Amino acid sequence: MGKVIITEQNDRVLLFLMDESGQPQMIQAAFCEEGENIGSIYIGRVTEVAAGIQAAFVSISSNGKVFLPFSECTGPFLTNRSFDGKLRQGDELLVQVTSKALKSKLPQASARLSLTGKYCVCKMGGHDIACSGKLDKNTAGRIRKAIKEREITGRKNYSFIIRTNAGTLEDLLPLFEEMEKFISIFEEIQNKYASRIYHTCLYRSEPEWAETLKGIPQEDYSEILTDSRNIYDHLRTVSGSNIRFYQDPQISLKALYSLETHLKRALDQKVWLPSGGYLVIEPTEAMVVIDVNSGKASGGKGAEKKKLYLQTNLEASREIARQLRLRNDSGMIMVDFINLESGQEEQILMKALAEELQKDKVKTRLVDMTPLGIVEITRKKVSRPLRDFFARNLSF
C-alpha cells in the first residue's frame, strides 16, 4: 500500500498520493485561504434570472456571487415565499457551492443540498439507500441491512449513498455516526434558515484538501503523513486512518520524499518514457493536446521498428493516464500517438488506454480515434488543474 503525504508550501496545501514504489499517482493543490469552500451552504439572493441560459445569478456574500443552473434548482428552500416552479429576482434561497471559479466563470452552486463524508453522502429529501458500484453485492447487502436494523432517527427523511470506504469497516459504527452527524447538520439548517437573513453561511465545509482526502479509497494508502501541525490536528479530529506527524531536524519531509522533484516533473511540458520516447503536454484555452514522440526509440527497421512504435505507444498510454491524474487536467484531451500501420495494433493500443483511464477516480471517458489518428478523451472538471496554482512560484 502507498501513503498520503500532505504538506504546506507558502499559501498552498499540497496532497500527494504515493504508491508503494514512492511514485506519485495523484497531486492535488489548494490555497489555504480562498473564499467559499466547495460544499458550504448559504442563504443567497437571486440578483438576476437569465432565462436564455436557463440559470440564475445568486449573491451569497457582499462580494461573492454564484451561478445557479435551473437544472440544479428543483424543490429549492426559499425563505421569502413558496416555490411555484420559477425563480424570480429577489428570491432568497439555500444554495450550496459545488465548484470553484474557473478562469472567468463564476463558482457554480446547487439548490439540491448534500453532505459528503468519508463513508457516505447524505442528500436532503428522499429516503433511499444506494451503494457505490465498487462495493460487491454481499457487502452492500450487509450494510443496507445493518442500517435498517440500526433505526437511525430521522434517516427516512434523507437519501444516502454508501461510499466504497464503508466496505472496509468491520464495525459499521463510524458509518452510523457519520450518518447521524449529517442528519443533525441538516436538521439544524432547516430549523434556522427561515429566520436568517440572506448572505448567512449556515454550513461551512472542510478545507478543500480534506474533501479531496475523503475521495481517496482507504485501501489505496496505509498512512497519512504530514509535517504541518495544523493539518495534523485537523486530521486527528476527522479521520480514523493512521496519521503520523513528521518531525526530523536532519531531513525535511519534502526532501525525504523528493516532493519538489515530483512536483516539477508534474508541471514539465516534456515527460520521458522508459523506451526513450517522450510526451509533450500542451494545455490550451480549449483543450489539452498531447503529442507522443518516438525520441530515442526511433531505431530499427521493418518488424522491429513496428514493435518498438507499439511498445512506445503502450508506455505512453500508461503515462498519459497517470499524468492526467497528477496534473488534474480535464475537459477535452487530444492525443497524437505514433502512427501504427495495422488496425489490430490500434485496437491493442485503444484497449490498453481504456484500461488505464478506468483507474482514474474522476470520471474519464475514451471517446474514439478520429480518421486522422487523433485519440479523443474527456475528463470531468472537478477542480482547477495543478498548473493554475504554480503560475508564479514553484519553489518550496
Model description:
By secondary structure, the protein is of the alpha+beta class. The chain has four domains: 2-32 and 208-260, 2-Layer Sandwich (Nucleotidyltransferase, domain 5), CATH 3.30.420; 41-110, OB fold (Dihydrolipoamide Acetyltransferase, E2P); 114-203; 268-386, Aminopeptidase (3-Layer(aba) Sandwich), CATH 3.40.630. The protein contains eight helices and 20 strands. Strands 4, 5, 6, 7, 8 and 12 form a six-stranded antiparallel sheet that branches. The protein has a six-stranded mixed sheet with strand order 15-16-17-18-20-19, with helices on one face. A hairpin with a 2-residue loop joins strand 1 and strand 2. The two termini are 27 Å apart.
In short:
This protein is of the alpha+beta class. The protein is built from 8 helices and 20 strands.
Break the fold down into its secondary structure elements and pairings.
Layout: E1 2-9, E2 12-18, E3 24-31, E4 41-50, E5 55-61, E6 64-69, E7 92-99, E8 108-110, E9 114-116, E10 120-131, H1 137-150, E11 158-162, H2 173-192, E12 201-203, H3 208-214, E13 221-226, H4 229-238, E14 243-245, H5 253-256, H6 259-267, E15 270-272, E16 278-283, E17 288-293, H7 302-327, E18 331-336, H8 343-357, E19 364-369, E20 374-379
Parallel strand pairs: 1-13, 13-14, 17-18
Antiparallel strand pairs: 1-2, 2-3, 4-5, 4-7, 4-12, 5-6, 7-8, 9-10, 10-11, 15-16, 16-17, 18-20, 19-20
Helix pairs in contact: 7-8
